[in-house]
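Exercise: predict the structure of this protein bound to iron/sulfur cluster.
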Amino acid sequence: MSDELKRSHVEVIKETSHQLRGTLAEELLHDHEFGKDSEHLIKNHGIYQQDDRDTRKAKNADGTARGKQYIFMVRTRIPGGKVTARQFLDHLDVCDEHGNGTLRVTTRQGFQLHGVIKHELKAAVKKINETLLTTLAACGDVERNVMCCPAPIKNNPVHDQMQAMADAIAEHLKPRTTAYHEIWLTDEAGEKTNVAEFKPVDEPIYGTVYLPRKFKTAIALPEDNCIDIYTQDLGFLAVVEGDRILGYNVLVGGGQGKTPSAEKTFVAIAKRMAFVTPEQVVGVAEAIVKVQRDFGNREDRKVARLKYTIHNHGLAWFKSKVEEYYGQTLPEPNPVDVTDVDDHIGWHEQGDGLLFLGINIECGRIKDDGALRMKTGLRTLLQKYGMTTRLTALQSVILCDIKPADKPEIIRILSDHGIKQDHELTLLRRYSIACPAFPTCGLSITESERALPGIIDELDLEMAKLGLQHDRIAVHMTGCPNGCARPYTPDIGLVGKQAGVGGALGKYTIYLGGNAQGTRLAYIYQDAVPQAEIVSTLAVALRFYKANRLTGESFGDFCHRKGQSELQSLQI
Ligand code: SF4
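Solution:
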C-alpha cells in the first residue's frame, strides 16, 4: 500500500484544500449546511458546524421530522486570554446580534459564540476581526490558542514577559494562508475565491498538510499552574530567580483525549524534556511543531497527537530530533517543578498601586439568568471603567487596573447584578469547570455544563455536613472522554460514559486521585455511575477522607496515597 493510500481522509482534505480554502466560500452562499469535507476544513477557521441536539426529534406542524437544525460555534483565539474592554464589549454585542445571546469563556482562555446560524456566520467572524482578534487557528490541525498565566502582577516583569512570550509563540506559529482573509473578511464581491487562480503563499511551518492533529501550548509558573501545563502538547514552565526569568523547562506530550473503545489511545501528562533560555523559546517551539508535523501519525487521527509520537519513538529520540531541527543541543530540565495553583478569584493588589478582581463565571457561560445578570453586570463595569480583562483557564474573568477608590462602587454593581464575590463562593465551585456538551457538541454522550452547577450545589451540602466546606477540591466535568475540560488530572473528574452494551446514557466515569495543581493522572474510582448518584458515590470517598486524612492533606493527595483498589473497595 502506498503512503498516499495510508493517509486518513482528513489529510487528503487538507492537502487538496488550496491552503484551507476548499469550497467554503461557495458553500457560504447556500442556505444548507456545509458538506462533510468542509466541516473538517472550517475548524481551522475557528468554526464548528453543530446542530441543536435538543430539537433533533422535533416535528413540523404536519408531523414530519424537522431534521437537524444546523448552528455554528465560533471560537476566538486570544493568547493568554488578554482582552481589552472594547474587545470584550464587542464580543458581548456579537453574541447578542449573531449568536444565542450567551458568550462562553473557554478552558483555553478564549471566547466562544454558540448558536450562530449560517447566514450570520460571516458577519460574526468579520466583527470579531474588527476588534483585532481572530478565529483563525482557534480550532483545527494547527497551533491552538497559546495559554499563559493571566494574573496581571506588576511588581516584577515576570508576568508581562510570560504574556509577551505567549504572544510571540502565537504570532510565530500562526498559519500564513490568506484563505481566511479572502473568505471571511472581503466584501460581498470578493466572496467567491477562485481556486483556479490560486497562488499559494509560503507556509514555512505547516507546509501543505498542516499538522496531523491539534496542538496545544501553554506557559506557567511553578507556584501557579493555573493553565494546567501537564495537560498540554507543549508547556514552558518558567524558572524564575528574583525578578528574572532565567529560562523555561520544556514539557512535551500531554494530552487529555482518549477513546475507551480503542485501547491504543490513552491520556498522558507531559514529560519534562529540556531547559531553554527565553531567547530559545520560539525557535524550540517551532522545532517541536515541525518534528510533530513530520513524524506524527497521518493515517489514524485517533493516535495522531504528539503524545503518541513520543510514546512510539521514546523521549530520547524525540529530544534528539528536536535538537536536530533546532540545530543545537538542549540541556536537561532545571529541577524546578509545579508546586501550586491559583484561580485568581477575588480582590488582589497588582503591585503598582492598582487592584485586580477575579470574577467566577460558572462553567464559563456569560448570560443573564434570573437574579444572576452576569452579562449585564460585566457590560456595566466595562462600559463604566474600561478596564483591560483577562480570561482564565478556569473559565472566569479578571478585571485589571482598578483604582482602589473604585472598589466600593464595583462591589455595589456586582451585588446589584447578583454576581458573587470570592467569599460568597465555595472553593469547590471556584475550582469547577465543565465543557459545553449538550445541546451543541456533536460528540457529547451526557450532560456537562448544564449538569455541573446542580452537582456542585449538592456536593457543597455534603462537604458542609462533613465540615469540609473550606477544602479546595477541583472538579472537572466533560460530556465524553475527549476531555475538553481536562477531567483526568483534578481531584475529581466526571466523564460522560460511552454507551456500551445495553446503553449507558446519562452515566459517568468518576476519576479520583489527581490534584488541583494538575501534576498527575487520576484513576477510575467508579464507572457507569448514573448522574443522580454522582454525589452520593463521591460522599462515600469524602467521608473516608474526613475520617482518615493526614493533617493538611488534600482530598486528591489522600486518594492518591490510598490508591485505586482501596477507594474502589469502599461500600457505595
Ligand atoms: Fe464535546 Fe466531549 Fe469536548 Fe465535551 S469533552 S465539548 S462532550 S467533545
